[in-house]
Amino acid sequence: MPLLPDQEYEWLEAQTAPACLDWAKKQSQLTANKFDHLPRSKALLAEMEALTSTQVQTPDFWIWGKALFRLRKTTANKQGRLERCERSSTGDDNLPPDATDWKLVVDIDELGEKEGRIFEFHSYMECNLFGTDGERLLLLLSDGGADLVEMREIDARTGHEIPDGFRTGPGRISTAWLDIDHLLICHSVYGGPKTVGDWPAQVHIWERGTHLKDAKLVFTAPLTDAITVASTLGPMNPGRAIITRSINYSTFAYSIVSLDGSVKELSDIPKGQSMTIPIKFTAQHVVVSLAEEATVCGRKVPVGTLVAYDIATDAHAPGDSKLSIVYEPEDDEVNLGLWGGGLAGTRSRFHFAMSKRGVERRMAAEYVAGGSDDGAGAWSIVRSIPTSTGSRSFIVSTDFYSDDIIVRETGILSPSTLWIEHEDARQSVLYAQNAAFDATGFVLRQLTAESADGTQVDYLLLSPKVPHNEAGKAPLLMTAYGAYGISFPTTYLDEMLGGLSIVPWLQAGGSLAIPFIRGGGERGEPWHEAARQKKRQKSYDDFIAVAETLIKNGFTSPECIGVFGMSNGGLLAAVMCTERPHLFGAVVSDVPLTDMLRYPTMGMGGAWIYEYGDPSDPEMAKVLRSYSPFHNVSDGVKYPPCLVTISTNDDRVGAGHGRKFAAKLKDAGAASLYFFEDDSGGHNVSDSFKNTKLLVRRLVFLMEALL
User: Fold this and answer.
1) Interior CA angle at 555 toward 553 and 557, to 5°?
2) Which of 265, 295, 322 is where one domain is finished?
3) In 3-state terms, what secondary structure has residue 383?
4) What pLDDT shows up at residue 222?
5) Which of 247, 257, 297, 645 would you label with 707, given CA atoms 20 to 30 Å apart?
6) Among the three residues 209, 237, 265, which one is the final residue of a domain in this structure?
7) 197: domain range?
8) Both 155 and 186 in a single domain?
9) Residues forming a β-bridge with 386
10) Are 395 and 341 in contact (CB under 8 A)?
11) What are the phi and psi torsion angles at 514 (to 5°)?
């Protein structure tokens, strides 16, 4: 079938239109028929299912006052069991809580079965717990992995829903307790005005015993904003919560809301910030990381500086007097975890992780009244702990009633260990992950390639110590992300590495390369800025440079290289397919963006204009079209085998991107184009623990093409 005009594919953007679902079902069945019956498929499925049953998946943990919570997933409970234990049961030793200490709060799978749905748990626990022992929980449930959630108020000690408690239908929801009878809530349950990112723009105070429709409106964000979020200021700030306006993904404004409905904007906080939602805080301060130079406390401070704003002192004090500098980074020092685990607050300390030339340390700072030379308050580093070589450390949860935290340390070859780190530096082990494979047979190296403009690009190469293939023919998977200043997560069995599916690949003799391309956060905000909007091609040039370097150095060959990526990484994979089809032997594009001229109209794409650029601007449209995968599919090109995977209920990117790209490739005569659309899973459809069959299909596709 010849290529149609671009607009003739727009019908595939309708997320749940019957014609779209019928098309997707037929294409998905063809893909399943192709791969499910191949000889290696049955063995790989058995291997993956065996891996999921060995308890290698790390539970999520939270700490809250006198209680610990965890979400534990097994083969029998793929969505997880939310459990709670009293902290006193852990004792003072380094032993994890005994299995009998954990009491069931909610079995997510069982609840879904009871109501005929596939519930997934959304885990903004720091905003959703109330009371010194976490006795009340606002349970957020997604139907099938969509970003829309519904909320239910639960007694966390019994697991029972509170009679006539707070409860909503589905919508984009963020919330915070003001007191036991009042919530600050930002929601789209009943429609209402929305931001360009399709998020609710209005924030209300909802009183117990009243209908959500009657909640008191206290704030409306400009509809030109990207995202509006309501979040907690912790139990040490009763009767107050905070609204975050993400004007775009690097410009933020904040307002504190009090129980009486009054709203105070924190206008003196510099607005150019790295994205951290929800905002981090201690009992006395909110803390941000600067994405641009700013003048703070009378002097210029660099990008990456952590700046605090005092929310506890006299409201009438001058705003600039409430600012203080928590930490000013050294040259070449960056925070790799701004999006998760690299910034966190407890009652009186602020915790953060910094990396300098590959050496990471985790630090904590405390505010000391009168601690500076002029008698003003100042921050003092009270803890600096190096991370083990080859690993990353993450602050996964913090206690607002103390200065205790939960830390996770992990690496590509190092299973995760989690522990409670007490304010006196004692450590109590919570969990040690089982190894999924023998790491002694592999070597992990950090190498460098030169990009098209001469920039040196670091990359990790994980390969067998003893090659399984002849020189220059190593089967290699490459993946990266490269956007929003996000550092690629080099953690054990990370979802962005394929989760459990990377294990059979490595055991079959495969290798893995992870280029730290521009657009990401591996070298701080300048590395992100270097590939934003009109400079996006530099991100792709970096990835291509690593592939070409590995070929030039005799490690592999084009027909042996597979590319995979999810979300923006799925866009990257699709660009590699259309821009350099002869450089790669296979491509997997998971939940991708592909139509860069219409992305603001799909999912929450309107929130991403700061990152990619506005296609309504003619000059920007030329740039976007130059790499937009959908627009660069052409007749007569020999494309590598390509698998596109999406979910019907991915309301973040939207199903239209993947459908349109696959349909156009098929019409262009791509001989080995495969498409699979799952009806659930949302933007995380390729979770290898929950969706083993999909990951097996992906693995079979890659092995058939590359091994």
Assistant:
1) 100
2) 265
3) strand
4) 98
5) 645
6) 265
7) 171-265
8) no
9) 361
10) yes
11) -125, 95
Distance (Å, whole) CA 489 – CA 337:
9
Task: HSE, CB side, 13 Å, CA atoms: give it for residue 46.
Answer: 5
Note the pLDDT of residue 82: 97
| Secondary structure class of 34 (helix, strand, coil) | helix
- If we measure between CA atoms, which residue out of 171, 232, 233, 235 comes closest to residue 202? 171
Q: Please state the length of the chain.
A: 707
Q: How many domains does the chain have?
A: 3
Task: Give the DSSP H/E element, type plus range, for residue 114.
Answer: helix 108-115
| Helix and strand totals (H; E) in the chain | 12, 39
Quote the CA–CA distance of 362 and 343 in Å, as a whole number.
10
DSSP structure string for 649-681: T-TTT-THHHHHHHHHHHHTT-TTEEEEEESS-
Q: What's at 668, amino acid-wise?
A: A
- Residues 443 and 420 sit within 8 Å (Cβ to Cβ): no
> Residue 375 has what pLDDT?
60
Residue 451: inside a domain: no
Amino acid at the residue 493: L
Same-domain check for residues 148 and 17: no
Distance CA 597, CA 620 (A): 10
Dist CA 457 CA 108 (whole Å): 43
pLDDT, residue 172, reads: 95
- Under DSSP, the state recorded for 290 is B
Residue 187, helix vs strand vs coil = strand
Q: 420: closest CA among 695, 11, 32, 64?
A: 64
CB 461 within 8 A of CB 412: no
Q: Are residue 134 and residue 163 in the same domain, yes or no?
A: yes
* Shared-domain flag, residues 601 and 674: yes
Q: Under a CB-based contact definition with an 8 Å cutoff, are residues 336 and 316 in contact?
A: no
Q: pLDDT at position 417, please?
A: 96
Rounded CA-CA distance 256/274 in Å is 20
**Mean pLDDT in consecutive groups of 10 residues from the start of the chain, 707 residues:** 91 98 98 97 94 84 95 91 84 63 96 96 87 95 94 97 97 97 96 95 98 98 97 96 96 98 96 92 97 93 96 68 94 84 95 90 93 76 92 94 96 96 92 94 97 98 92 96 95 94 97 98 94 99 99 98 98 99 99 99 96 98 99 97 98 98 98 96 92 96 98
**Residues 165 and 183 both lie in one domain:** no
User: How many CA atoms are closer than 13 Å to the CA of 323, on its beta-carbon side?
Assistant: 22
Placement of tokens 């390969």 in the chain: 463
Name the residue among 518, 514, 571, 575 with its Cα closest to residue 546: 514
Query: Quick one: 120 and 107 in the same domain?
Result: yes
Pairing of strands 333-334, 349-356: antiparallel
Task: Give the amino acid at 522.
Answer: E
**364 bridge partner residues:** 351, 383
* DSSP 8-state code for residue 178: E
Q: Residue 408 has which token pair?
A: 């996770």
CA terminus-to-terminus distance, the chain:
31
Residue type, 150: E
Residues 134 and 209 in one domain: no
Residues 6+ apart with CB under 8 A from 605: 197, 593, 599, 653, 654
Q: Are residues 70 and 41 in the same domain?
A: no
pLDDT of residue 302: 96
Asked whether residue 687 is assigned to any structural domain, the reply reads yes
| Residue 537 domain-assigned (yes or no) | yes
Q: Is residue 326 part of a domain?
A: no
Q: What share of the chain is helix, strand, coil (3-state, %, to 5)?
A: 25, 35, 40
CA dist., res. 658 & res. 646, Å (int): 7
How many Cβ atoms from other residues are within 10 Å of residue 514's Cβ? 23
According to the model, what pLDDT value does residue 52 have? Answer: 85
Q: What is the pLDDT of residue 314?
A: 61
